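User: Before I run my own analysis I want an independent prediction to cross-check against. Here's the chain; please return only the structure tokens and, at the end, one sentence I can use as a sanity check.
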Amino acid sequence: MGGLGAMYFALKYPEMFCSLFSQAGTAHKAPYASDAFGLLDRNLEKIKGKLRIQIFCGTQDEGHIPSLREFHQALIQHGVDHTYLEIESLAHDLPAMINRYREIWFDYHVESLRRFDGK
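Assistant: Structure tokens:
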């Protein structure tokens, strides 16, 4: 479940995570509260200011980018600080994305752990 699974578990159980990285995942909208949008609404107080969120997707990743753009807007509307990056001309090529941004991701999670106070 890659980026989708990471998003689902971090938004469902935000008290268990200090950072979330969705690498070209998706943010499904479903008619129940266990989709990314419903989980954001339900757990907003546990997420906002506590869970660091980073989302990357290629602009040519037609299966994933529409929902991530919509979720990015939902995060903005809810006032949730996050990092969102669209990688120009990249499709769903996860190895290319990993090779291009490996150091950023590592540093991001190290900083998330450094900031985490366990409360």
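Sanity check: The two ends are 28 Å apart (CA to CA).
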